[in-house]
Amino acid sequence: MDRQTEDYLARHFLAILDALSDGVYISDKSGKTLCVNRMYEQLTGLKREEIEGCDVRDMVRNGIFDSILNPEIVQTHKPATRVQHLKDGKTLVLSGYPVFNDRGELCFVVTFARDITILTNLNDQVEHQKGLLQKTEGQIAFMARQQKENSLTPSFASKAMGDVLQLVDRIAPTDATVLILGETGVGKDVIANLVHQRSPRRDNLMLKVDCGGISETLTESELFGYVAGAFTGASPKGKAGYFEIANGSTIFLDEIGELPLSMQTRLLRVLQDGEIMRVGSTAPRKVDVRVIAATNRNLKDCVMAGTFRRDLYYRLNVATIQIPPLRERPEDIGLLAKVFLAMYANKYRKNLHFMDMTLELLQGYAWPGNVRELQNLVHSMAITARGPAISPQELPTQISGHPQDESRFNDDILTSSKSLREIMEEIEADFLLRAIERYGSADKVAKRFQVNRSTVFRKIRKGRKSGQTGRES
């Protein structure tokens, strides 16, 4: 290159720097800032006249930069790269290079700066989304484990529940729609889980939808999803509904009797054609979903009353499972109570068991809330139990048949209209219950007070009957 060309380039040096798309920062070996280009000014917000002549180390001390390359490159004579954070939140990647003279001496350090703020933010978002995905995968795995645990064969001793389980075994391998009927608390969700886990779809998560727990105004978008801009407040990306989410698996529609009539029509299309239509869309979407529905209502009565579609009822009523209430299968009460007690005793690390008389009293109760009521009661007793043996005294009054408040009990005796015989029967029963609590079993009480075991139970039942008669009068 001739002298004239060099002079020409030198005169236009700054213009050449300003034409570069990266920021350029040139300093000498002492750390003095010599010049920067226009892109560097735009990236950092710093003006040439503000920083030219400044020592790079002073700029770090003054908080303008958090890191620099000049000292490192001057010392090592090698290129270096570093990330630099500015006060305004920008993130720059710095790439510095040493410049040598003809004698091989380092004379300048040229640093190129590139804005990677957007890239950094994207990376942060990706990491955040990864974290959410991992959390969601963990939750799904946990839910799947719970479903499998809940789908283990229920504990039962009654023929009625044996018949229910045999019916489950015949229905589960098919892809038929299932309708589960029964009172509140009988365990319809347990049977639904069992059907799913014994079906070919068992490897996928069953999605449970509480039809009575969704706002009527949101039911359509929740069940069938919506397209972008379908309504005010809708996600700009649209949203998949429960049926799309459950594609390839099973959807459990709990309390199907609560579903609005307008949604019953949409559900009928899913059952008939295997298609859903997102809110705001004109294009149907195919879904492969097995439907299990449950209700505590009499759907025949709902059909007659006009609150449930007749054609939907017939579509649902393909494979029907009727779960009997707990009062109709007393053989299961004691077994379930023991199962629940063992579960909660293990959870709270306690050694607990029921006295024989406690189990007899539990079996004599009507359980209007069914299995759920029994489980909740056992849970409560496991928490509040005063000792390892749960006695009749720890049962609620409506189950034990005698008041737990002794002073109130004495007042009741003095003000009641019962005969002396009834009062004595009730006192005798209360005495025997307390004795069982103290000695641990009816056998020990019978031996201690020299009576037959059957006499102990007979007197307790007789006393309970007298107490109930007195309260009814």
TrEMBL record:
SUPFAM superfamilies from the UniProt entry: Homeodomain-like (SSF46689), P-loop containing nucleoside triphosphate hydrolases (SSF52540), PYP-like sensor domain (PAS domain) (SSF55785)
Keywords, alphabetical: Aromatic hydrocarbons catabolism, ATP-binding, Nucleotide-binding, Transcription, Transcription regulation
Domain called PAS: residue spans: 9-72
Entry-linked SMART domains: AAA (SM00382)
Listed CDD domains: AAA, PAS
GO biological process annotation, one example: regulation of DNA-templated transcription
InterPro entries: AAA+_ATPase, AAA_lid_NorR, Homeodomain-like_sf, HTH_TyrR, P-loop_NTPase, PAS, PAS-like_dom_sf, Sigma_54_int
Record keyword Nucleotide-binding present: yes
GO molecular function: ATP binding; DNA binding
Domain Sigma-54 factor interaction residue range list: 158-383
KW Transferase (keyword) present: no
Pfam families, per the entry: AAA_lid_14 (PF25601), HTH_50 (PF18024), PAS_9 (PF13426), Sigma54_activat (PF00158)
Protein name: HTH-type transcriptional regulatory protein TyrR
Organism in which the protein naturally occurs: Candidatus Desulfovibrio intestinipullorum
